[in-house]
Specification:
Strand order of the largest sheet of chain A: 5-4-6-7-1-8-14-13-9-10
Strand content of chain B: under 5%
Helix content of chain A: 25-40%
Number of helices of chain B: 2
Order of helices and strands of chain A: EHEHEHHEHHHEHEHEHEHEHEHHEEEE
Order of helices and strands of chain B: HH
Shape of chain A: globular
Strand content of chain A: 15-25%
Number of strands of chain B: 0
Oligomer: heterodimer
Helix content of chain B: 40-55%
């Protein structure tokens, strides 16, 4: 029998709010975190996409000036989210050697890297700051979190584009199953609202170009969806063995019953249209705890609002669930948050956990005209989730053919 | 235009404060950055880069730095 793993703390800073609860409340209220970018560089570089989901509360507000100075914005989001999750879990007393971190990013310290390159070009190598490397390295966020909570059981970084932080949570599940650690802080972050990633994603026609209606641009499953909307922020969960959580009297949000990662080996950016790799990930995530497919009542879909991606995920889900899919409440929360890339899986994991904890599936906004090729039961206003012991999954897929799926079960 | 010792000191103190949060008035002529103010090597290098920028000078990497 696998060990029981539970969620005992959550934290987030997102386009919807500066913490997990205000993000969740804004999500339930059907708000959009997407707005027009006012930065000078929009005009300077004539970036073709002029909107994104910026963090509602700047991370620097929750950090000392010295912390902010030494951390790339991605790591700032990570630290803010992880501190909230840690405090929410009651700042567990745990042997440092039995405490680990699994913290992901999709791109890493892109602001630091490109700012340093500007400095090099304009002022020469002597002006390049010595903190440049530790700030830009993709393990920077994980390292910052690990130092902050004194985790000595291993600090690791999953990097698999938009699947990164779901993979980090799946890795945390595996790590806890080994018995080597009692507690893992898992999550992800991204700070990619910079002209270069925006221009590059726009160049591959991945982004919505709905510049005149930013709050309506992220519209998963809608016939008029035209790409994803970039978001930024961070999210973190405190995961621990049930034994450890109960021994210290921790509050428990939900049980993490499994996680799995597969790969398509199909195309560097396009999803496998048959969805077989994604389907295998769903099945593998549920297999850990011998859950019946019929127990799944809710899915937080990857659903980025791209024309091809939304259909590929639907195909995969139909492959797995068959007719039962029609009874599953589907939420596509990127409609409100935008796509946090390496942070997406973690914030969606929190939404999935809270949906089980509060027995409420969050709404999908901007679904005016559902694509007939995607006949899913999409939740458009908060919906009660019925059932005694209920299961939900969260999917994430990333460029490179990465599929990551995590599964949770209600505990209350 | 040459700066007075006091102007250099207060300029340095500002850089140190910005980088490390150490109170500007703790930065004194007879204090060592590393031994007295406990500034780590990476902060020290950042302070050097910022001081070079501010005062338009080059600080040799090998010189033992003291305020």
């Amino acid at each position: 029998m696998p060990r029981k793993i539970v969620v005992t703390g959550i934290g987030a800073t997102t386009p919807l709010g500066g913490d997990a609860q205000s993000t969740w409340r804004a999500l339930l209220a059907g708000e959009s975190g997407i707005s027009t970018l006012e930065q000078d560089w929009i005009a300077t570089y004539e970036v073709p996409v002029t909107f994104a989901g910026q963090a509602k509360v700047p991370a620097t507000e929750a950090l000392t000036p010295q912390e902010a100075k030494r951390l790339d914005p991605s790591s700032q989001f990570a630290l803010v989210a992880a501190r909230e999750a840690w405090a929410d879990a009651g700042s567990p007393e745990v042997e440092p050697e039995r405490l680990a971190v699994e913290f992901a990013t999709g791109i890493g310290g892109v602001w630091t890297l490109l700012d340093a390159y500007d400095t090099l070009k304009e002022k020469g190598p002597r002006r390049v700051l010595p903190m440049t490397i530790p700030m830009l390295m993709p393990n920077g966020p994980a390292a910052a979190v690990g130092m902050d909570i004194a985790a000595r059981g291993g600090v690791r970084t999953a990097v698999s584009a938009c699947a990164s932080s779901t993979e980090a949570i799946a890795n945390a599940y595996d790590r806890l199953q080994t018995g080597e650690v009692d507690v893992v802080v898992a999550g992800g972050c991204e700070a990619g609202i910079h002209p270069l990633p925006l221009a590059a994603f726009a160049a591959m026609h991945a982004l919505s170009k709905r510049n005149d209606e930013p709050a309506r641009a992220s519209r998963p499953y809608d016939v008029n969806r035209d790409g994803f909307v970039m978001g930024e922020g961070g999210a973190a969960l405190v995961l621990e063995t049930e034994e450890h959580a109960i021994a210290r009297g921790a509050k428990i949000y939900a049980e993490l019953i499994g996680g799995a990662v597969t790969s398509d080996a199909h195309h560097i950016t396009a999803p496998d249209p048959e969805g077989t790799g994604a389907a295998r990930a769903v099945i593998a995530a549920l297999k850990h705890s011998n859950v019946d497919l019929a127990d799944v009542v809710h899915i937080n879909a990857h659903a980025t609002s791209t024309p091809v991606g939304d259909i590929a995920e639907y195909t995969a889900l139909r492959r797995v669930f068959g007719d039962h899919l029609d009874k599953i409440a589907i939420s596509a929360t990127k409609s409100s948050t935008g796509h946090l890339l390496g942070g997406a899986g973690a914030i969606e994991a929190i939404f999935t956990v809270l949906a089980l904890h509060e027995r409420t599936a969050p709404p999908t906004i901007n679904l005016d005209d559902q694509d007939p090729a995607i006949p899913l039961d999409v939740v458009t206003s908060p919906r009660k989730l019925e059932g005694d012991s209920i299961v939900a999954i969260s999917n994430s897929f990333g460029f490179g053919g990465h599929n990551a799926v995590i599964a949770f079960r209600s505990t209350n | 235009m040459a700066l007075s010792q006091a102007e250099v000191l207060s300029g340095l103190a500002e850089i140190v404060n910005e980088e490390t949060g150490i109170a500007a008035d703790a930065v004194q002529l007879d204090k060592s950055f590393t031994d007295d103010l406990d500034i780590d090597s990476i902060s020290m290098m950042t302070i050097v880069v910022n001081a070079e920028d501010k005062f338009g000078v080059k600080i040799p990497q090998t010189k033992k730095l003291r305020t």
